[in-house]
Structures are given as C-alpha cells and as structure tokens.
Amino acid sequence: MSAQGRVRVGQQAPDFTCNAVVDGRIKEISLSAYTQANHWLLLLFFPRAWSYVCPTEIRAYSARVEEFLYSRACAVAFASTDSEACLRAWNATGELEGGLGGVHVPLISDGSHRLSRAYGVLVEEEGVAERAMFVIDPKGRVRAVAVGDIDVGRSVDEAQRVLDALGFKDEFGEGCPADWKKGDKGIDVSGKSKVEGQVEVRKSWVDWARPKIARTWSSASHASSRSLSGIMESSRMNGSGDNFLVASMHSDIDRMTPRSGMISASRSPARSVSLTSQPVGSPSDAHSPAFSPTSHGPGGMEGQMTQAMMQQQIDNMQAALANQKLTQDIGVAN
C-alpha cells in the first residue's frame, strides 16, 4: 500500500532537493529552482529503472520536451527510488539493450524515499513509487494529480491538455468542459446569477389570497366589464336612473355567482364586506372573524370574499356611471 497523506490539489507542493541525472551528468535539483524561474513543473513518478513500460513513456516525453518548455513554460522531471548511479547507467545504455538511449529530461533519484513519501506515492512494502503525476504551478501549488496502474503508461497529449486548461483558467477565469482543447471556449464558473429584484413578502393572508381570488374570478370580472356599457345604455333608455342601474347590476352579478357552497352577493351595502375597508396588514386582518383563514361554509372565508368581490364590482359600476353623467352635464353646460 502507498503511504498515507497523498498531496492533494490546491496544497503547496513539498519542496525538495535531490540528485538527478541531467544529460548524462549528476546534478542537484529542487522545486524552488523552477518556481523562482516562474516555471510550471510536471513531476512524474515511475516505479523503477530497467523495466518495460517506464522507458516508453520517458522517451515519449523527452522527444516532445520542447513543446513543454517553450510553448508552455513547463519543465518535465521524472523521479524514482533508484540510485543516481543506476539511473545514469540506464540513461547511457542504448534502447536495444533495454536502456533509455540518452533522454533530455531530468531523472531524479529518490533513494532515501523522502520525496515519494512526502508526495504520498511510496509503496512501502516494495520500496517503489506509484505511477503518479503532479502538475505544479509557478507559485508552488499542486494543480492536478493523477495516479494510475503501475503497468499503464501516460499520455503526453493529455498532460499538455491539462496544462493548457489550467493556464486558460488562470488567464481568463473560466472553466474548461470535457474534452476541452486549446482554442476552445470556456465556461463561466463564477456562479453569479442575474438578480431580478427582491422577494415580495406579503404582510397578511389577505395579501396572499387576493391574487388567487383575482385569478378565480377573472372570467366573471371580464363578463361584468363587457356588460357595463349595455347596462348603462339600458338605464338611459328606461329613464329610471340609478335604481334601475343597481338592480340590473345585481341581477347580472347574481347570474355569475356560484351557488354551490357560497353565499350570494348581498344587495345591502350595510351587510357587504369590502377588501379595502381597512389598510392591508392592519392588526384586525389576522384576528377578524369575518376574515379568518380557517373559516369555512357559506358564512366563512369563501362566502365573505365572494361578497367582497361582488360589492366591489357594484361600486366600480356606480362610479363609472357617475363619471359619465358628470361628463354629459359638463357638455350640456358648455
């Protein structure tokens, strides 16, 4: 099993100073050297030298190292628990004899196991590192981690795609969808939605019920409005004035009032209930028996609200007639 506490994305990468084989020579290498140069670092752990899969991927990365260095400002380094002498001999050996044939990427020697243990990829029982990849940005933060099967090599193209995506996010602040490639569009990941106003908090149950009642009686209200002109015309033709108008309106409203389970509209103004008789949200809204949200039956909430709607329509029609008469009087006077 690997050591516990594997380095995660977003954490500061453990700094290290190790010996490495670079172009056939043994040199000292450290993480801080790359961060100080404002470079990204692709740190790739592999199990062991003189194996079968490892030389194929090391040679593949070495052949395209310039694509990392010059196009992406990213250094590539491989690390294993082999000694520097072992790695040096392996690099100097030709491909036909199982060697690397002289690669151009650093081969870090982690003979003490400090580096692989610090990154949490050391297989303690075997003393080798897992096949793992860590992408480290110029600030020394780990930005991507990938750990795979020990016998499955990694893709150079995928490593470059991840680097390009991370650079794109840092530059434009956008995320990258699946299969994103350099040149594709990003996705807004800010999480900010368009605000379309504040939530309307209703002060009482009457405010909550009014729009529902309006929708329920919309058809009746439209019918009443269409018949208003006809009623007023009949009033003038009969010559009976307001009494005929009010009686006609009551007759028209009675025809629109549901009979089942509801009280019909009262013709007595003294008995009618008006929604506008007191300010909305006043203390009596919540405690008045006539407007109790829990009342039922003909004398309960539904019946009272029906009366209120009918009386309001009567008042509106009377006001309209008064305005028309006033307009006619002004015309005669002129």
TrEMBL record:
GO cellular component, one term: cytosol
Domain Thioredoxin: 7-168
Region (Disordered): 256-303
GO terms for MF: thioredoxin peroxidase activity
UniProt cross-references to Pfam families, sorted A to Z: AhpC-TSA
Protein keywords: Oxidoreductase
Source species, domain of life: Eukaryota
Gene Ontology terms: biological process: cell redox homeostasis; cellular response to stress; hydrogen peroxide catabolic process; response to oxidative stress
Extent of Polar residues compositional bias: 263-281
PANTHER family referenced in this protein's UniProt entry, alphabetically: THIOREDOXIN PEROXIDASE, THIOREDOXIN-DEPENDENT PEROXIDE REDUCTASE, MITOCHONDRIAL
Protein family according to the UniProt entry: Belongs to the peroxiredoxin family. AhpC/Prx1 subfamily.
Protein's UniProt name: Thioredoxin domain-containing protein
Species the sequence originates in: Cladosporium halotolerans
